[in-house]
Specification:
The structure is a homodimer of 586-residue chains. Chain A has 586 residues and is an alpha/beta fold. Helix content of chain A is 26%, strand content 26%. Chain A has 18 helices and 33 strands. In chain A, strands 20, 21, 22, 23, 24, 25, 26, 27, 28, 29 and 33 form an 11-stranded mixed β-sheet that branches. A 7-stranded mixed β-sheet of chain A has the order 3-2-7-16-17-18-19, with no helix packed on it. Chain A is elongated and about 85 Å long. At the A-B interface, helix 1, strand 5, helix 6, helix 7 and helix 8 of A face helix 1, strand 5, helix 6, helix 7 and helix 8 of B.
């Protein structure tokens, strides 16, 4: 990037503002680690190497003795709203962990407020020392078939967003959209080509000929690898593979074997957090944690650092701006004592110290929120009976599909169960771990809602409800009985958004999420406490999942195999169409 | 890139048009070589790997048994006009060598016809099976100080050109422009940033802090490395290094030691031909030759192939289009039996066979040429006395700077010589290898011309003149006497462009270059014969250089150390200003 100030420093016409001395540079271009200084001019790196001549009387000297100089970390694929923190709060956590850039779609506010919501997030982020690259979602409604939403995003919106400074193409361009020949998505892909912006992918389990088809939509990367074989196939087909280590999707251990066992080169391998809760960020870390995980899996530390710096920047096509401690780039620099240990001691963003010793060194204050973003609900409270699954079938037993969550992989597989029909209602059955699950449209009080069946939560009583629920952000609720479900849902409505655990008429735990119904400005520590309380309350109800809300919230995503639930009905991913969970009378 | 046709093949909705079977795929993403088929849909690669299911009754099977499937080669930095061939003729040669893409500025026609000339070249190329990526020159006039030209290129032109399909930023963004703070170039760099297009560099011998300054202009690559040390410094500073193996600049052998001896990773290392004559292309080859040279210097064959495929595509930011045998890319595929030997047996461009066994398999015919491109000269014939070096100094001896060409490096260094002043004229001195050298403006008959002194050609008689002369394309002439120089220059004028060797009143050899005064539509074989005749004639005149015209033509480039000659005078590169070659009386 052009910087006259940095040019002038390099040419000796002015002195550097700051100079790092005594450190070892981790050069991600050459994979070398060597003694080198770094001269800073404004928010840019002016020069690296022997920079003594750039030091003047006013130059601030930063003693990096005993430290490595590492590029600021990049998360090339993260949904910040899934942490339930506002972008200001999110930044306050991840900056302390060494993350200085994220690529994020803001696709959770999009179904609530459309492109204006995305712009709102970007405007809030503009003053933060966290760099944002923004590919808006390829399309909202994101699901096939469509859910009922508060707003949509399509080619006309992309035409606007691609002119923004933060523009980074389109995100989550699912294989399903390509398979379905979605004309809006195809048009938006054409806009990306015209604007030289990346098409970011999403293609779980797509390999072989289908992967060839998918590559021909122009998708540049994929964050949905589930095995080393899938990773190898995608790398061979030219995809940047963003291996995921999310709060609930631990894909790294298997996928990284493409590197550690198959020995493939790493230049198109990166790492991402995708969906993570605040507790994970605070307790384990962000990209620093994932770097440590990669090293623990046998990746060379410098190669692991490359994955979340230059490789991520290449994937995003922003390697001219970030991803390296090199002139022409932003002065996003970490001090790290031991590369294998990878604890980030200090974080500089744009040349300014923003964190050290894991503590934020700048004040990041959320802005005042406009009323229109705090009151995004229009949903009449429900009665328990509204949530029952009704059928024309006669009383008796029925074979039904209950969605089932397998261990350690965030899918919804088919589980065939036998349920009872009584008086035109299909009953759930906690004794065989079959709960009710409902999704309710919450934007325009259309009354659109549906109920299906779910296993894996082992609820014996009560209910869990959430209005953070990618990618529709409607109200999702699972329960052992409809009374508890109605209590939880109606409390979410009262809060104008939130997560609630209820039993009967009682609220056991709740987390208000007033910002667009999905986010909060509470402190990260408060968020961690709230997440703990919600989980504890769910466990009280018999739930055996370590992190039940992180399983529940994704229920409406139709791009995840094999089943999902929208406000408009139960969806089979193989056919991308509504179907009935009832199979036949038995 | 989006291709519905290729998507349909991958999804099994239609059959492939062609399928390569039995070959070994050179996968440049994974650096693997393995048995794989390749399915073609139109001009795209639909799928790789096990593609048997894409074969239908109409599918053409291409038996690649015993062959490697290699991506079509990319020359990321070449001036096609320097071959003196029209782009159609150029394509007809390099396609047989396996080159399917070139990045070329068309910066030699630019000083003659401006952006319209560049568009003319692109329109001619549009129907060729050679893919062109076009960064117009960062600025014309390209020299500092400026020469007198027929046309200019600036930000207003870039605003137009950046909308073209072939747009690839700006080329030859010299360190000198940045050092001088050229406002036009800075504006054009801003346009590149806004259009997400690369800024291609040019920074010979720039290292250390100055290299940091240069990186802060945003230059993405550099093709001017002269040593392993310079290459290492540029790689560390984030540049893509396009190591050059040109007809007269053999930089590869030294620079590649950054890889073969220093062991640096190759992902940002590429190779380029830069300036080459037709004889080199026909006799040695193009990028195939340079790949063989890299292998001969100790580079692993797959790494060498990566350098001229995916690495070059990354440098140009066109890795979504070319540089790999992978779905989503153009079906530019070579068949190569032995990778270490690297002889290209067959060449497919956009899925069509264009060459096999070194022979073109398609008819490529130059178009009719408009009169305005065949009559670009306006220069009154000169008299011998017009070319003398005149001075106010008294008769006697004078210490003078004679430009000197060192062996095997295309620079003009300073040689201090003593010359004689007689009657206000500084005489050349063949006895100590000091020739006259003149540059004459040839577009608007302004009479702007200058003379200086040059060594290294060891001319004992006669003169060599050329109107192909980057980057001004004025007439450049070197001679042992002004009579021969006038003969040669006047013949170039009569031809409306060309290269001529003359002695006294006699023409010893000549090559008409009527197209813009710099190119010809004669066949490559005829061009080779003409180049041979010109060289032989120069040798008759005592010239000891193997390829004197390839030394002579670059004389006006001010971005090459240490001296150059424009129509407006003698230029010192250190100060980028006109100076006198006369030092002092002795």
């Amino acid at each position: 990037m052009y910087s006259q100030r940095a040019i002038d420093v390099g040419l000796g016409r002015r002195k550097a503002d700051k100079v790092f001395t005594g450190g070892k540079l981790v050069n991600v271009f050459t994979a070398e680690v060597y003694d080198a200084g770094v001269a800073i001019a404004g928010d840019r790196i002016a020069a690296i190497g022997d920079v003594g001549e750039t030091i003047g009387d006013e130059t601030e000297i930063i003693d990096a003795s005993g430290m490595h100089l590492v590029p600021g970390l990049i998360d090339p694929h993260v949904h910040t709203e899934v942490t339930k923190m506002s972008i200001t709060r999110f930044a306050s956590v991840v900056l302390t962990r060494g993350t200085t850039s994220v690529c994020t779609a803001f696709d959770q506010i999009a179904p609530v407020k459309g492109i204006d919501g995305i712009r709102y997030m970007l405007d809030e982020a503009a003053d933060l020392p966290l760099r944002i690259f923004n590919p808006p979602p390829s399309k909202i409604p994101y699901t096939i078939p469509e859910g009922t939403l508060g707003a949509s995003v399509g080619p006309d919106d992309h035409r606007i967003a691609m002119k923004w400074d933060e523009a980074n193409g389109i995100a989550e361009t699912t294989f399903d959209f390509i398979r379905a020949g979605d004309s809006d998505v195809i048009e938006s892909i054409g806009l990306c080509e015209a604007h030289k912006l990346p098409v970011h992918g999403h293609a779980p389990f797509v390999t072989g000929l289908a992967l060839g088809a998918y590559a021909n939509c122009g998708a540049r990367d994929d964050h949905e690898c589930f095995s080393a074989e899938e990773t190898i196939d995608k790398l061979r087909n030219g995809f940047f593979c963003l291996l995921r280590e999310a709060t609930m999707a631990f894909n790294l251990a298997d996928c990284i074997k493409a590197v550690t066992e198959a020995g493939l080169p790493t230049r198109r391998v990166s790492l991402c957090s995708d969906d993570t809760d605040t507790s994970t960020l605070v307790r384990l870390g962000h990209m620093d944690h994932i770097v440590r995980r990669a090293i623990a899996e046998g990746v060379d530390p410098v190669a692991a650092i490359q994955m979340v710096t230059i490789n991520a920047a290449d994937a995003l096509r922003v390697d001219d701006q970030v991803g390296a401690v090199a002139p022409g780039r932003y002065a996003d620099i970490l001090l790290v004592e031991d590369l294998a240990d990878f604890q980030v001691s200090a974080v500089y963003s744009g040349g300014e110290l923003v964190a050290s010793g894991g503590e934020l060194q700048v004040a990041l204050t959320p802005p005042e929120r406009p009323a229109e973003l705090l009151r995004t609900f229009s949903l009449t409270p429900v009665e328990p009976d509204d949530l029952l699954f009704r059928t024309d079938m006669p009383d008796g037993r029925v074979e039904a599909i209950s969605m089932f969550i397998p261990p350690e992989i965030p899918l919804r597989l088919r589980r065939d169960v036998e349920l009872t029909i009584e008086g035109g209602v299909v009953l759930n059955d906690p004794s065989i771990d079959v709960s009710y699950v409902s999704v309710l449209e919450r934007y325009n009080d259309t009354g659109s809602r549906s109920t299906a069946f779910m296993s894996g939560f082992s609820l014996t009583d009560g209910a869990l409800a959430t209005s953070l629920s990618p990618d529709d952000e409607n109200v999702v609720c699972i329960g052992a009985n409809t009374e508890s479900m109605a209590t939880a849902i109606n409390r979410v409505i009262e809060l104008n958004g939130g997560q609630v655990v209820a039993r009967g008429d009682d609220i056991l735990a709740e987390l208000p999420l007033p910002l667009a119904g999905i986010m909060s400005d509470i402190s990260p520590a408060e968020m961690v406490a709230a997440e703990d309380q919600l989980i504890a309350a769910a466990h009280e109800l018999g739930c055996g999942l370590a992190n039940p809300f992180m399983w529940l919230i994704f229920l409406p995503i139709t791009a995840i195999p094999q089943y999902s639930l929208l406000d408009r009905g139960f969806v089979e991913q193989a056919t991308l169409s509504f179907c009935s969970p009832l199979v036949r009378s038995v």
